[in-house]
């Protein structure tokens, strides 16, 4: 396994009531002695180092003598969410992961370790994992079935930092965020009653069920940070998600009790969702992308990977998973590991002014300027009637965008890429795409079709 380096980690387990236990860790000079509590539970903190040598832990009592070997100190990251996080390196049936064969063929790496929590739900919080694939050294024999985003992130992080990396994967396709939140926190939003539910039918859509079985048993294990790719399961509830997702992150951080650990997440990618004409209501997933973008300001020590340019109109599981992992990695390298020259942030709409029947947009995270590969597209503009028309758009002064239309002489608002399926055309000079956005907060806007 991999234990988080240079920190205090928790070792825990069970024994007979009051049973005396000793722990000898190869990197510690002294033997640790203690006894289990009245219920047989025990838990103790020990410090790790930055040694790259394999370590051992021996846990001994009158009845037991357990040795854990081939332990490395490194960086441990948790990956969770739904099917786009679950998507394996080998891809789904008929839905590939680009670069999978090369990744699998070159995956042998003794310093990259992978752990998978199997899909299972529970009505009550579990102390121990009931289904899992134990720690494995990355190799062509096991990488194919592991989370593509988790693998690509971990493989690159290991090479860049030149330290061991451990990736813990715990996700479930089609899951709602409510399933990943504890009962105590979910109860502040709604009454949670699952005693009479058949937990085997839809645990991934059942409040608290995945937290209970797939997160709670992990919580004593010290991690560096978390990666999250989820949102499709809540796409018709953007305002609710804007409350639930930050609450989930706070819930996890409180229970891990290791501070506001880094939490980097992916904005859902453009996809048809069966309704390309949706514009002014929640069937348009631009509202969900907007909610996810706003969560940046609601979740301390967080970052987002924008995917406006790598979606697929016909596949809800975009094949370009390495690009997603790259953008999460850039967040981590800059914000967590101090590589300040890695410009990870996407341009983000800040403000606008009206000039000569045009709207001039200004952006944060655009000090190096704005860029488009061919031409800017997918901007629409509206006046007092709140009817949006296709607009002409261009980059001005290298850092602003001018938007106008002959059909809107007194413009008030602009929206960009404001539909389900769209390919983003606006980037920063770092080639990180901007999210879809709007300058208004209207709930009764309409559009003129092109």
Structural account:
This protein has 450 residues and is α/β, with parallel strands linked by helices. It has three domains: 2-71, Immunoglobulin-like (Sandwich), CATH 2.60.40; 73-335, Rossmann fold (3-Layer(aba) Sandwich); 348-447, Immunoglobulin-like (Sandwich), CATH 2.60.40. A hairpin with a 2-residue loop joins β14 (348-355) and β15 (358-364). α3 (148-161) packs across α8 and α6 runs parallel beside α7 (286-298). The protein starts with a strand and ends with a strand. The protein is built from eight helices and 24 strands. It has helices spanning 83-86, 100-105, 148-161, 183-186, 209-215, 238-256, 286-298, 321-335, and strands spanning 2-4, 8-14, 20-25, 32-35, 41-47, 55-61, 65-81, 109-117, 132-138, 165-171, 225-229, 263-266, 302-305, 348-355, 358-364, 370-371, 379-382, 387-390, 392-396, 400-404, 413-416, 427-428, 437-438, 446-447. Strands 1, 3, 4, 6, 7, 8, 9, 10, 11, 12 and 13 form an eleven-stranded mixed beta sheet that branches. It is elongated and about 85 Å long.
Layout of helices and strands:
Layout: E1 2-4, E2 8-14, E3 20-25, E4 32-35, E5 41-47, E6 55-61, E7 65-81, H1 83-86, H2 100-105, E8 109-117, E9 132-138, H3 148-161, E10 165-171, H4 183-186, H5 209-215, E11 225-229, H6 238-256, E12 263-266, H7 286-298, E13 302-305, H8 321-335, E14 348-355, E15 358-364, E16 370-371, E17 379-382, E18 387-390, E19 392-396, E20 400-404, E21 413-416, E22 427-428, E23 437-438, E24 446-447
Parallel strand pairs: 1-7, 7-10, 7-11, 8-10, 11-12, 12-13, 18-24
Antiparallel strand pairs: 2-5, 3-4, 3-6, 6-7, 8-9, 14-15, 15-20, 16-22, 17-18, 17-21, 19-20, 21-23
């Amino acid at each position: 396994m991999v234990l988080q380096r240079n920190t205090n980690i928790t070792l825990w387990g069970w024994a007979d009531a009051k049973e005396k236990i000793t722990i000898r860790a190869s990197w510690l000079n002294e033997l640790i002695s203690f006894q289990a509590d009245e219920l047989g539970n025990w838990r103790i903190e020990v410090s790790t180092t930055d040694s790259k040598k394999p370590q051992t832990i021996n846990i001994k009592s009158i009845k037991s003598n357990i040795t854990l070997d081939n332990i490395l100190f490194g960086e441990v990251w948790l990956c969770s969410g739904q099917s786009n996080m679950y998507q394996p390196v080998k891809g789904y049936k008929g839905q590939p992961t680009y670069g999978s064969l090369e990744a699998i063929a070159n995956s042998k790496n003794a310093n990259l370790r992978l752990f998978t929590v199997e899909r299972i739900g529970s009505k009550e919080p579990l102390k121990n994992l009931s289904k899992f694939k134990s720690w494995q050294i990355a190799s062509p024999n096991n990488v194919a079935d592991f989370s593509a985003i988790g693998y690509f992130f971990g493989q690159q992080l290991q090479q860049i930092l030149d330290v061991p990396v451990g990736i813990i994967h715990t996700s479930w396709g089609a899951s709602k965020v409510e399933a990943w939140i504890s009962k105590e926190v979910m109860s502040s939003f709604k009454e949670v009653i699952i005693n009479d539910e058949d937990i085997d039918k839809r645990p991934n859509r059942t409040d608290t069920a995945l937290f209970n079985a797939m997160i709670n048993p992990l919580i004593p294990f010290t991690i560096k940070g978390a990666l999250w790719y989820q949102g499709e399961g809540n796409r018709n509830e953007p305002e609710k998600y804007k409350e639930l997702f930050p609450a989930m992150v706070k819930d996890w951080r409180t229970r891990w009790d290791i501070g506001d650990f880094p939490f980097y997440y992916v904005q859902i990618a453009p996809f048809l969702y069966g309704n390309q004409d949706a514009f002014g209501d929640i069937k348009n997933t631009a509202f969900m992308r907007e909610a996810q973008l706003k969560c940046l300001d609601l979740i301390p020590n967080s970052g987002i990977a924008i995917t406006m340019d790598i979606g697929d109109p016909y596949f809800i599981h975009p094949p370009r998973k390495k690009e997603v992992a790259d953008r999460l990695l850039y967040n981590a390298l800059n914000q967590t590991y101090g590589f300040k020259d890695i410009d990870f942030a996407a341009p983000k709409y800040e403000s606008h002014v009206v000039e000569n029947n045009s709207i001039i947009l200004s952006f944060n995270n655009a000090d190096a300027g704005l860029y488009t590969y061919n031409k800017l597209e997918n901007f629409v503009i509206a006046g007092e009637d709140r009817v949006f028309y296709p607009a002409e758009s261009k980059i001005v002064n290298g850092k602003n965008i001018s938007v106008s239309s002959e059909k809107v002489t007194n413009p008030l608002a602009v929206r960009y890429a404001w539909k389900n399926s769209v390919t983003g055309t606006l980037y920063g000079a770092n080639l990180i795409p901007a999210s879809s956005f709007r300058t208004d907060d209207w709930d009764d806007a309409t559009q003129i079709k092109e």
